[in-house]
Amino acid sequence: MSHLRLEKLNKRYSEHAQVIKSLDLQVNSGEFIVIVGPSGCGKSTLLRMIAGLEDISAGSMYIDGTYVNDDTPSERGIGMVFQSYALYPHMSVYQNMAFGLELAGKSKEEIDAKVQNSARILQLEPLLQRRPKDLSGGQRQRVAIGRAIAREPKLFLFDEPLSNLDAALRVQMRMEIANLHKRLGSTIIYVTHDQVEAMTLADRIVVLNKGNIEQVGTPLELYDHPANEFVAQFIGSPKMNLIPASLVQAGDTESVVRLDNGKQLVLPISTPRHAEGQSVNLGIRPEHILWGNVQESQYQANVMFVEHMGNETYLYLDNGNASEPWVVRNAERSVISAGQTVGVQLPVEHCYLFDGDGNAFQRLSSTQNKH
Amino acid sequence: MKLTRRQRHITHQTLIYAAAALVSVICVFPFYNAILTSLRTGQELFLTNYLPTSFHWENYVNALMVNGIARSLLNSFIVASVTVGICLLVSITAAFALARIKFKGRKYILFTILCVSMFPQVAVLSGMFELVRFLGLYDSLGALILSYTTFSLPFTVWVLTTFMKSLPVELEEAAIVDGAGLWVIISRIFAPIMGPSLVTTGLLAFIGAWNEFMFALTFIISNEQRTVPVAIGMLQGASQFELPWGNIMAASVVVTLPIIVMVLIFQKRIVSGLTSGAVKG
Amino acid sequence: MNHHSESLPSKGSSSKANLQSEVIPQKKKRSLQQRRSRAAWILIAPALILLASVAGWPLLRTLFYSFTDAALDTPDVYNMVGFDNYLSWVDGESFGVLADPLWWKAVLNTLWFTGISVSFELFFGMLLAMLMNQKFRGQGLVRAAILVPWAIPTIVTAKMWGWMFHDQYGVINDLLTRVGIIHEPLAWIAEADLSMWAVVFADVWKTVPFMALMLLAALQMISADLYEAARVDGATAWQRFTRITLPLIMPAMIVALIFRVMDALRVFDLIYVLTSNSEATISISGYAREQMVSYQQMGSGSAASVLVFMMVAGIAACFLYIGRMNDEGKENK
Questions:
Q1: Counting Cβ atoms within 10 Å, is residue C247 exposed (0-12), middle (13-18) or buried (19+)?
Q2: What is the ipTM of this complex?
Q3: What is the pTM of this model?
Q4: Fewest Cβ atoms closer than 10 Å to its Cβ: which of A202, B97, B265, C99?
Q5: Residue A31 and residue C1: Cβ atoms within 8 Å?
Q6: Neighboring chain B residues of A149 at a CB cutoff of 8 Å
Q7: Is the CB of A59 inside 8 Å of chain C's CB atoms?
Q8: What is the pLDDT of residues A53-74, one digit of tens each?
């Protein structure tokens, strides 16, 4: 039985403002699920609906098999970590963590035991008597987490917890959260707009866009087999390049596409007969594009600018669309400079094909990343 | 002739200091004058002098003992404290609902409260008079406590609502996730955090009630129940034409000093309370 | 850990295998929003009930009494007289509040007082706020000093200024004579033309600090960067004031203005104590109360009170209307 089940979940603020559209999701016990998407996609709203802080307009939610649409957050047995931590400013760290337990009517001994335990896990013991205003950002973060785990809920909700931290602290806290999950084994639902956090923390990622689920899968599945252009470009940085082309010959094992410059490619991708003649997009990730000799290449392009990162180089190629140049990543330093013309090769085993609606055609090559 | 940068700066600074000095003098002088006057008696009153010439304390003794200012201070204190106490208690829950819960009719209620605070006092005078008599409160402090609620309550609700709006939503949500019901949220989370705001609001409302004149004049007849403003307003001398300015000034100073001290101590809070209501409202 | 991989978007219905183990409770509880809305009404009920009984009810009773001829010492004995208290004609002569020349003088006094005093308060308040916005040593002392007029009870203000305006021993006359502006002491309180000015001075003195604090708060919200950018662009001090400061503090200024006008229209205490409600200075509130208490006329006093209420409400409505028209005008642009 699943731990959390969402069925045709719907959230509407008014006639025209439908934020979540008929969403289905199953989360298993102990899973670390990351809900990721651009701002405004509804991920925070979804999390708050799971928490019970927002009403569900239509659809059903089940926790451990029980229908919980109208239950209060504490009745649902959840713990939540807020983006701004939301610590009670007039209470000490100890009191912050004890508050929920007090309200539940636990005995003093039990409260003390649980708070001390959480404090130990998060290394908060020396800070127990301090007030939130005397703590650093990272410490407040940990207190917020400590408050959530003190009540030993079965379902943890994290609402963009790392977005208020600086980069170095973010990396450290990411590891701590991953460790926490391993240690406690609880089910975690984590919302973020940062795909790096999603890729590194999640057992499964839910990609949300405009209230709809675009795809659900493990991080590598999403990376290697994106279901549509949105997921393909959202996961992976820099994002996947999309090259307009047309499908000249469809087939079950092979398809032929023609690029704008006339060159044709034979891709190991299965396309249906009726798609023949349509405009398609060819997708290829920056790290898969090869460059070299102008004569042997499928494409020639001008280099707009070069970014030297020290360990790798990014080339931005002029493809006629200045706002979305192609990006090529090379894992070495490069001597190419801006203004030069380079030849570009697109290895067919790393190509993706997307139809007019943005959905992916099925690829037949192996899933391994050969770079 | 164009002034150098430094010369412009000096003239600028001089003007500022001169203006600041002028403003301070204008603001403080009337009270200073009152203090001077209160320390003089007899013929000295009729000479205008800008520096202290004598220190006769009889006026103060007179004011407190004979003219009943001491008693009126007590009355004013009781009335203002009880009124403000009741209003704050009732306002906290109302302000929470108005500030943090979206419910149908909220805008109308806020508008109504704003309107009530704009009532001219005289408009409720005869109705209140009837009510006071009906409840048997005429010529008692109870009449004032009742009638002062008319303007104190809208004020406290309005200011507290503004303060409550500024508290972050996530704080409330964290409490809900912890299992807190509305009453727990109000009493154990919001009220403690709002402590300073409650003090400020209470202070401002207290000053408003302390200063009230029309109701105090109309509903209280006997000397023992008089509040401070009326007591000051009614000060008279032995004959019909003689006004004991020394006494009057002494009484004025006595009733004003506590308030000035309080206001100076709580300056920052008071200023922020006054401005938040208007600028954000 | 379970790996339940789905490579395609899971928009279809989920598996039905688990249905028999899921529990749906019998009755539907109220939703979060419904619960909170209900609670809101309970929370606000005490305040509303209290307000209705001490503000709403007396107002209605005043309205009621305005249609009667009750006397203050015997409010139970009355006849209904319709609009007679407001305006009536008997034998060719008109009676009632609206026919009383003193009422109209009071209206004139009040409007004059409001207009002049609020204008002064706005002007001096603005100057004072700009002064307070500068950085100089002793700023704290000045801020404390300007709170003094605000803190002093109105009655005391009236008495203090009454003393200062005293024709023989008052410092105002003394100062003016010493400086040479006047050669004979002026009868500030007694003389009809001057007494209104005395009231205005006292009120302005008391209220400018409050205005200044409101405007200062608004001024402080303007970031210094804007002024610096304007200076770089070559704007003079006057231009910076009219093109940056004024437009940005306009909203706060208007709010403060509306509040002050409402307060000024309701003036009573200052005039009653400083000039004893003399004919030259009596305000509409003063008139109404005089009718009720001095003349014991509960009926016509109530009528006057209702008229005062309508005047204040009417002017407030004008403000609202202008405000809404302004908003619509902005939207249409």
A1: exposed
A2: 0.83
A3: 0.80
A4: B265
A5: yes
A6: none
A7: no
A8: 888 888 999 998 889 888 888 8
